[in-house]
Amino acid sequence: MASKPGILTDWPWTPLGNFKYVILAPWAIHATYSYLTKDEKERDFSHFLIFPFLIWRMIHNQLWISLSRYRTAKGSNRIVDKGIEFEQVDRERHWDDQIIFNGMIFYISYFTVPGGKHMPFWNPNGVVIIILLHMGPVEFLYYWFHRALHHHYLYSRYHSHHHSSIVTEPITSVIHPFAEHIGYFLLFAIPLLTMNFTGTNSIVAFAGYISYIDFMNNLGHCNFEVVPKWVFSIFPFLKYIMYTPSFHSLHHTQFRTNYSLFMPLYDYVHGTMDKSSDVLYEKSLTGPEESPDVVHLTHLTTPDSIYHLRLGFASLASKPYISNWYLRVILCPMTFGYMVLIWIWSHTFVLERNHFNKLTFQTWVIPKYRIQYFLKSQNEPINRLIEEAILDAEERGVKVLSLGLLNQGEEVNMNGELYIPRNPNLKIKVVDGSSLAVAVILNSIPKGTTQVLFRGKLSKAAYSTALALCQKGIQVTTFHEEEYKKMNTKLGGKLALSKNYAHKIWLVGDGLTKEEQLRAPEGTIFIPFSQFPPKKLRKDCFYHTIPAMMSPKSFENIDSCENWLPRRAMSVGRIAGILHGLEGWNVHECGHTIFDIEKIWEASLQHGFRPLSPV
User: Fold this and answer.
1) Contact predicate 321/564, CB 8 Å
2) How far, rounded to the nearest angstrom, does the alpha carbon of residue 14 sit from its chain's CA centroid?
3) Residue among 196, 242, 373 at smallest CA distance from 298
4) How many angstroms from the chain centroid is the CA of residue 603?
5) Which residues contact 4 (CB under 8 A, 6 or more apart)?
6) Using CA atoms in the order 228, 230, 234, 235, what is the torsion angle rounded to 10 degrees?
7) pLDDT of residue 494
8) Residue 570: beta bridge partners?
9) pTM for this one?
10) Parallel, antiparallel, or unpaired for β 548-550 and 610-611?
């Protein structure tokens, strides 16, 4: 929001929220119905194509968002070496408003503007007109309009909203108040209307010009340099008619230079080109890929979880993961395509980059779904990917690699121990975070508790927690005979077999049933020791998250949620790896090995991590 919002700041359909798309429904339905029912001579293909073209624009922009986030996470050719936060993601989540706005104008223009109906597919004369008018009037008028927007009166009321983002993403390009978008559309309409009035319009020219604007907008705000040096070496004149991402990035960091739309020529002519433009371009182009100190290795959970990654839909990634029916239904073909691609081309990829206390931290993703970890046929491929990731991290000089979710599963790789004897000369340390998980669970149990109930699939963290509770004199119980036999052996006969559900503190893992939850007494506290949270069925009970903690405010570049955790919360697996890196603990924590519980808990608090509250 601008510092002093002016009139027409908000979009007219803001009160509709996510239902704003219904605005286009009548026109899209009418165009489709007309095309399908009219005879061949009366059908208008250009009218029918408006809605698919709007969908193409959304896909085009989303591809840029994903590419930009991937490239900036890797670090290669990054321009502004800073991160973004949730506040920017929230401010830019309505980037599709301008597409809805344009769609409305396209449909209205079809019925009102002469020459708007029955466009031919191709007319070279129209393409020439668009090129000439864009290079002349559009670029010239935009330059001076843009400079006017930087006058303190207009800047404080409108344009400051766009410049709130110092570190830009592709969608930053269209984050403007409604009034500004009206002005921009009037400028871009000059070539389109001229083409209509001269009878030289065509589908290719119309769609091509709008796609060109989208492409250049995304290019200028992507925050990584992508234009190779040889382009300007072979065609020197291009530096005057095509900007680069680093050129426009300077406008967002310096504010009073590089005002041009897409052609730097006007900044050269009027003396507003930033003198460091060429230097920043060279520096960004040669920027190496970043080598992290710590890596967290996670994996996909459900088929639609791909959209909740920060490389997917930014607005979804910025909220705790909830499976949405519309993603499963509407995007089913795309989801299936992703699954096939992952099955064929299975390579670990970089998801996220963070900085904390001079430590560089990356999250890598194994492209396997949760269900695949339970298939014996997938054990070998999964272990191969994990081992390759460990060796890749070793080669890059990474100090610590933490295993997240099922990458540390006992059935898969013996809690990560499988890779150590295979690679006896490893310098990198493999961490599963079990000690911090135990510490978080122990500190989640209310003071004065004398008895706890264990239920669910037992894990390394569960056994270690039960042992620690017994050492504190807290009675550990379970009502399942199989769990009782497994745990009692390791606890030296200190486990009790319960015959009722009256316990108020339940430590739960995978396998907790609906019936068991419903039989728990009112006010029961469910504390998971598993990697996946139990389904919340009771409103009269309290549910903790999986073992996790809140990250300190100094932890940079957190703009997405880790699976189902709230904003800025991190799983203990991620935190444990960071703590091992910060403290320089030169030991593995995997297999049957568990680190000092008190030591890692104290270290987490000293570095600013804080416990989460129950839901």
Assistant:
1) yes
2) 24
3) 373
4) 29
5) 156, 157
6) 20
7) 78
8) 549
9) 0.94
10) antiparallel
Whole-number Å distance between alpha carbons of 209 and 121: 14
Residue located via tokens 């096939």: 340
Which pLDDT score is estimated for 428?
98
Gap between the Cα atoms of 565 and 562, Å rounded: 6
CA distance 131 to 518: 68
Contact residues for 147 (Cβ-Cβ < 8 A; gap 6+): 259, 272
3-state secondary structure 134-175: HHHHHHHHHHHHHHHHCCHHHHHHCHHHHHHCCCCCHHHHHC
3-state DSSP: the chain helix, strand, coil percent, rounded to 5?
50, 10, 40
CB 169 within 8 A of CB 69: yes
Phi (first) and psi of residue 451, to 5 degrees:
-150, 135
Tokens of 195: 């083409």
Burial class (CB in 10 A: 0-12, 13-18, 19+), 316: buried
Q: Which residues contact 595 (CB under 8 A, 6 or more apart)?
A: 434, 435, 436, 576, 585, 587, 589
One-letter amino acid at 524 equals T
Show the low-confidence residues of the chain (pLDDT under 70).
1, 614-615
* Count of Cβ atoms closer than 10 Å to residue 49 Cβ: 18
Amino acid identity of residue 528, one-letter, is P
The pLDDT of residue 615 is 52
Residue 520: name the closest of 493, 541, 491 by CA: 541
CB 362 within 8 A of CB 298: no
| R_g of the chain, CA atoms, integer Å | 28
Give me the count of residues in the chain.
615
Q: How much is the pLDDT for 406?
A: 96
140: helix, coil or strand? helix
Give the pLDDT confidence score for residue 190 in this predicted structure.
98
Beta strand 548-550 pairing with 542-543: unpaired
Q: Token pair of 142, please?
A: 């935009």
Q: Is the dihedral of CA 245, 246, 251, 257 positive or negative?
A: negative
d(CA 492, CA 495): 8
Determine the residue type at 159: H
- How many whole angstroms separate alpha carbon 529 and alpha carbon 509? 6
Give me the pLDDT at residue 75, please.
86
For 539-572, letters b (16+ CB in 10 Å) and e give eebebbbbbbbbbeeebebbbbbbbbbebbbbbb
Reading the block at residue 294, the tokens are 């710590």
Beta strands in 418-497 (DSSP E): 429-431, 451-455, 475-478, 496-497
- CB-CB contact of 455 with 507 (8 Å): yes
501-524 per-position pLDDT tens digit: 889 999 999 999 999 999 999 999
Q: How many CB atoms lie within 10 A of CB 234?
A: 8
Token pair listed for 559: 């703009």
**CB 204: neighbour CB atoms within 10 A?**
16
**What was the pLDDT predicted at 439?**
97
